[in-house]
Specification:
With 267 residues, the protein is α/β, with parallel strands linked by helices. It folds into 2 domains: 3-92, Enolase-like, domain 1, CATH 3.30.390; 97-216 and 232-266, Rossmann fold (3-Layer(aba) Sandwich), CATH 3.40.50. It has helices spanning 3-6, 8-15, 67-70, 79-92, 105-113, 127-131, 154-157, 176-182, 217-225, 260-266, and strands spanning 25-28, 32-36, 40-44, 100-101, 117-121, 136-140, 163-167, 187-191, 208-214, 236-242. It has a 7-stranded mixed β-sheet, with helices on both faces. Strands 1-2-3 form a 3-stranded antiparallel β-sheet. It is globular and about 50 Å long.
Length: 267
């Protein structure tokens, strides 16, 4: 896949953003990055592995940009810039909650993957529970833990899977389009707060997008500024959007916020 191809999904996401907005605040915190424009968008904060960190372009002046200017950072090979760009994209998405259902990512993966072969890109807290219902479970991770496979295994593993879960953070390291290409023919769930809740993903074969919506801004910002991991963040609502080709089993919109058990199951 050429470099231009790997950016196509990002270009399509950006093209789908209909209305610009000034960037009001940026919080690039240890685990999570937030951009406040029309809404508050979240993304995982990525750091370069080596001790030398490249500077963020125009740092100190980013709140002088428009959100549509800032979203271009998602294409950067500086992963911290890409994190900021991805949060900016999420800050401009108007989430259509009428298309969302009350079911978290773990439950969907467990139901669709029962007695089937499941591959998960990213190590999530519910992996052991998912392993209990799967015929076979592979976990692919850039920083593998015990029992995980390295990122290079995606080429051989994903085409074998019946059900695939892919971390939304794959937008930041620019692996998402290749992962989706390898997963075609599987039931695909995009998982995590970085995941853009945009129908654009359905054009790339995604069946379910499991993300979040910020509903209590001050709580979210305080938590991420203080170093919260996702399960500790207060003020977010879990949102799951289904590809229209699937029957909506439960059309009730999410009503519960700050449900720690649900959040831990989700991500």
């Amino acid at each position: 896949m050429s470099g231009s191809d790997t950016m196509k999904i990002l270009d399509d996401l950006i093209s789908s953003l209909n209305e610009d907005s000034p960037v009001r605040e940026i919080h690039a915190c240890v685990f999570w990055t937030a951009v406040l424009s029309r809404h508050c968008g979240l993304a995982s904060t990525f750091h370069e592995e080596h001790p030398y960190h490249r500077p963020v372009k125009d740092v100190g002046n980013l709140t002088g940009k428009s959100a549509l200017e800032l979203v271009q950072y998602v294409k950067s090979d500086n992963v911290l810039e890409a994190s900021i760009g991805m949060a900016a994209i999420n800050s401009l998405i108007d989430i259509d909650e009428a298309r969302c259902v009350e079911e978290n990512a773990f439950d969907i993966l467990a139901r669709e993957g029962r007695d089937k072969k499941i591959a998960i890109v990213g190590h999530f807290p519910w992996i052991s529970k998912l392993r209990a219902v799967a015929k076979k479970l592979w976990v692919i991770e850039q920083r593998p833990e015990e029992g995980d496979l390295p990122a290079e295994a995606a080429e051989s593993i994903l085409p074998q899977a019946d059900v695939v879960g892919i971390t939304g953070a794959s937008f930041i390291n620019h692996t998402v389009e290749k992962l989706l290409e390898l997963s075609q023919g599987s039931f695909i769930v995009m998982v995590g707060p970085t995941s853009p809740l945009s129908p654009v993903l359905f054009d790339y074969g995604v069946d379910v997008i499991a993300g979040v919506k910020v509903v209590k801004l001050e709580k979210v910002i305080r938590c991420i500024n203080e170093g919260a991991i996702f399960g500790q963040i207060e003020g977010v609502k879990l949102i799951t959007m289904l590809n229209p080709k699937h029957e909506i089993r439960n059309p009730k919109q999410y009503q519960s916020t700050n449900d720690q058990n649900s959040k831990q199951n989700e991500f």
